[in-house]
Amino acid sequence: MSVDFDLLRTLHRMHRQLADIEQRLRKGPLQVKIATQNEASFAAALDDTKNRQKENRLATDRKQMTMNEREAKVEDMKAKLNTAASNKEFQLLKDRIAADEQASSVLADEIFEMLERQDVIDQEVVAATENLEKSKVEKKKIVDRVTEESKVLQEERARVAGELAENEKKLPMDVKTDYRRRADAKGEDVLAETDAVTCGNCQVHLTAQMKASLLMNEILFCQGCGALYYLKEGVTAK
After folding, report:
1. I want to staple 84 with a disulfide (CB 3.0 to 4.6 A). Which of 29, 89, 181, 233 is the partner?
2. What is the pTM for the complete model shown?
3. Residue 203 domain boundaries
4. In a domain, 45, yes or no
């Protein structure tokens, strides 16, 4: 039975349109997923920075408290110098005062470094917050765009699928069932353009008998991929 190659070209074009639409529909949610992951990553970075900010502040406060306690202790020992019962006790107090003052000096340097670190971390928190807010704005833009594009694409898919179904009705009865089964399994690859030399899908070479069949516009399926053949426009089987 012969078949209209122009009809097959039209069907293949529509199958390809549907495949492209489906690919674009799948791409949208992937973009939203990536944007969501980016937002989660920035949120995690902000939490981590805030934790470091809190830990450094608490550590600084603890050192400051320790230094205050040591300074109060030093002042107390200095007051006791005037009431020392002996030279030995006096010298012992002097040595302890010197040691504590030295320790307080080291602690003061550590506190100063931690305060400087706090300034840096505070700036990092500001930057991390800005990054998170930007990612939220960007995600919303992507979600809005994908939602709108998806609506348009779904309408386009319905239109093309309707036109495809109408054109499929024009196929010869003898090929409809086989075509439908293969289309359900292979999608756009249910059809293949050929230059009468090789299959446009799998590059399998056509035999002389297959070329003769194409010359007579006969229904012909590829022996390699199973696609329904149609001749490329402007090409005649030789």
Report:
1. 89
2. 0.74
3. 171-238
4. yes
